[in-house]
Amino acid sequence: MKLFSRIKFNKLKYFLKKIPRILAENSFITILALFCLSLILSGFIYYKYVVLIKSIEPQIIKKPLQFEEKTFQKILNEWLERKKRFQETNLKEYPDLFR
Q: Is the overall model pTM greater than 0.70, yes or no?
């Protein structure tokens, strides 16, 4: 509780309101800082997704992939049902709403 009693919320609120004005007055430094921040961020992303990927060897899967017949049959049956429902829509006659 002592930490919250020490913090002057009015001073913090006043400082947070002044930040946009300070940044606008020092626009060159702000743009320079944002540019450096973007360079650091893009360098980190490049390091993570290019440099580390090349240094890590791919894992070898010991168990070969197996074709699951049951799953394939379920998918095939679902596709056939969808095809049948789609063909049924061609046979159904809809009333003309504009007559």
A: no
Rounded Cα distance, 37 and 34, in Å: 5
The pLDDT value recorded for residue 2 is 59
* Cα angle: 24, vertex 25, 26; to 5 degrees: 90
Give the span between the Cα atoms of 47 and 53, in whole angstroms: 9
Q: In one letter, which amino acid is 58?
A: P
Q: Which residues of 31-54 are buried (b: 16+ CB within 10 A; e: fewer)?
A: eeeeeeeeeeeeeeeeeeeeeeee
Q: Tell me: the pLDDT tens digits for 37-76? A: 999 999 999 998 888 877 777 777 788 778 899 999 999 9
CA distances from 98 to 91, 92, 94, 95 (A): 21, 18, 12, 9
